[in-house]
């Protein structure tokens, strides 16, 4: 599983605070959207784009600090089956690239509690310390030290489904399903100090990882996406529990 409060807060904020228009006109992002407007999708898309464009500045108006770069204390990626059997821990990592996201398309249906968003991330970089043990395809892997992961040309899809929930006489949205798809065009990575510092074996493994990145990522992709889905659904529901639905879309009673 993949676990990171930092990324969870970021994605929950971007998706639920920005896309649902909970920012006020005083912020740099504009006003709320109307659910029954013919321009709804474009309105939501513009707010989402504004969220990403300002990740490097943060949102003091709502108490959110700078998110690009984002500092993440710990991440765990664990896969126990298939051709990639891996226990990978990442520590004190810096994540950069979300302020360059392009929101390609939004399909929103507030009356059905549904939202789909399609994004492109040109570059997403993770740098920090790692500890790894396992097997990559046919080769054992073990080590700890500095690392980086550089994703290029990511195509992402977020598909959110929900239902009404009444709290204190007011209707809120409860997320029942949050599907995530993350597809990079390329991935470059490096793990220093593999095999107790054996440079020859370390270089061979790094070359192998980069040459076979698609198979490695394909094996880990379901775990990464499912973990992001669970995290985002949890944090999203926490946010939505505080906001009546008619404060998000003013023309829905």
Task: Describe the structure in your own words.
With 253 residues, this protein is of the alpha+beta class. It has one domain (33-250): Super Roll (Bactericidal permeability-increasing protein, domain 1). Helix content is 29%, strand content 41%. It has 5 helices and 7 strands; from the N terminus they run ααβββββββααα. It has helices at residues 5-18, 40-53, 199-211, 213-240, 245-248; strands at residues 70-79, 84-96, 102-109, 114-136, 139-167, 170-183, 186-191. Strands 1, 2, 3, 4, 5, 6 and 7 form a 7-stranded antiparallel β-sheet that branches. Helix 1 packs across helix 4 (213-240). The longest helix has 28 residues, at 213-240. It is elongated and about 65 Å long. The protein starts with a helix and ends in a 5-residue tail after the last helix. The model is unreliable at 1-30 (pLDDT under 50).
